[in-house]
Amino acid sequence: MNNMNYKNDAETRNTNVNEAILAALHAAHKMASPTSTAPEDLKRQRLGQEALGRLLTPPIGFSWEPFLVKGIPAAWVRPEGAHDRSKMILYCHGGGYTSGTLGYARMLAVRMAKATGYEVLAFQYRLAPEFPYPEALEDARLIWEYLMLQGWGAREIILAGDSAGGNLALELALDLRDTQRMLPWRMVLFSPWTDLTASGESYTECRERDPLLTREYIEAVRGAYAPGADWSLPEYSPLFADLRGLPPTLIQVGGREILRDDSTRLHQKLQEAGVPAMLQSWPEMWHVFQMYPLKTAEDAMEEMAQFLETLR
Fold it and tell me: Can you give the CATH number for the domain in which 267 is found?
């Protein structure tokens, strides 16, 4: 009985924390003018994300090492003690292609390094509307080439991304395949944005439950990223690409998010293309919940590490 009481108390605490974070997300979302891509609003969004990321310093035993790659801001998160150097993670941050900074990328980069013991390289690609498609992809190619020149082999790299960074990770993998280059060993995608046409049923089903994203936001940022484009083309929406030959892929998604079906349909398409793929869903979680101080986020990071370990 006592053990059951402890379990119930823990579940209650977790629920209270989730509800508090949801309330904070709702409030922050309303203040950030998320559907505006006007310069002053984008500046506010980007500064807010940078400040949020800087609140998270690497835990004891990890370093944060910023540098430039041909003008592209990048940073290594490295375990300072003995660690597994057989693999590394190349991380593409999210932000709708219009926001997201190196400091913002720190949150998930640190969590992935802590969970896996691998070094993680994050980078800050150029953002729209100042730098629309294909500038972000060109920056991702440059970072990939940097890793090759540093002696990393493609089969030693785990390519990861969240939200728009998940889109970018998929587009980089497809670009490598189509240019007959070696592909990364594995991919890990957190709530990837795969369908810029916004055709998933989750846009309607989760409209009132998603604390972060709205259709209006998606329409605003896709217009900034690829103005006037046919968003059904594979170079914008990897959901509609030929996915054959991509590496084994883990997809994690929250059940509350309007982008839920971008993940569930990607998982189905990968399987149809013969790509080993795993989908992990948390019904009460929101978009890229892994970056928040939640027990569920820790569990998700452990699941990611286990996915990578079982495929060694």
Answer: 3.40.50.1820
Whether 216 sits among the annotated catalytic residues: the reply is: no
Which has more confidence, 299 or 54? Answer: 299
Active-site choice (99, 171, 257, 263): 257
Q: Is 204 within the bounds of a domain?
A: yes
Residue 258 confidence (pLDDT) above 90: yes
Q: Which domain holds residue 213?
A: 17-310
| Average pLDDT of every residue of the chain | 88
What secondary structure, in 3-state letters, does the chain show?
Answer: CHHHHHHHHHHHHHHHHHHHHHHHHHHHHHHCCCCCCCHHHHHHHHHHHHHHHHCCCCCCCEEEEEEEECCEEEEEEEECCCCCCCCEEEEECCCCCCCCCHHHHHHHHHHHHHHHCCEEEEECCCCCCCCCCCHHHHHHHHHHHHHHHCCCCHHHEEEEEECHHHHHHHHHHHHHHHCCCCCCCEEEEECCCCCCCCCCCHHHHCCCCCCCCCHHHHHHHHHHHCCCCCCCCCCCCHHHCCCCCCCCEEEEEECCCCCHHHHHHHHHHHHHCCCCEEEEEECCCCCCHHHCCCHHHHHHHHHHHHHHHHCC
Of 99, 163, 191, 202, which residue is the catalytic one?
163
User: Is 272 known to be catalytic?
Assistant: no
85-121 pLDDT, tens per residue?
999 999 999 999 999 889 889 989 999 999 999 999 9
